[in-house]
Amino acid sequence: MQGDLSITGKPEADELLNTVPLALLIGMLLDQQVPMERAFLSPHDLKERMGGRLDAAVIAEADSEELAALFSRTPALHRFPKAMAARTQELCRIVVERFDGRAGDVWKVADGNELLANLKSLPGFGDQKARIFVALLAKRLGVRPADWEKAAGPYAEAGFHSVADIDGPEALRKVREHKKAMKAATKAAATASA
To answer: Using an 8 Å Cβ cutoff, are 105 and 133 in contact?
Structure first.
């Protein structure tokens, strides 16, 4: 696996995302209620806190309190470190049980529908996040099973302004602006209907 996702501001963390499938899955899992850069930097920090190794089996078998402590250490790996440690551990358990510990096997599929189904079976991967991840795999890593565009939905489009479109600082800025505008529109709509 070799991609061109550039989001964390740290070359070594971006390299990890682009070359280690488990890091990419964990980063996407953590991408909620925290800045994108922090979510995708956290797999690198977790690896360092685990002695320089990011291994699904090790995480799956870890003591849950010890894993939560690793997530909680300053700077915390997520806004909700204990909950996200548990979710990461469950993700790793599924990777071990269903994919023999190889996170990249999640996307070794016949078509986009199978990929979408695999992703939606993971904790924290609802429909939207799974579709964004399909687009991220296709756009940033060249993983393009048959009908991936249909599985990704609108995120398959060029410049849709999701994490799948980030290949550098300028693209990150555009995604941030898009997210900010979407939140403002949602807030305005909620205020108008109240």
So the answer is: no
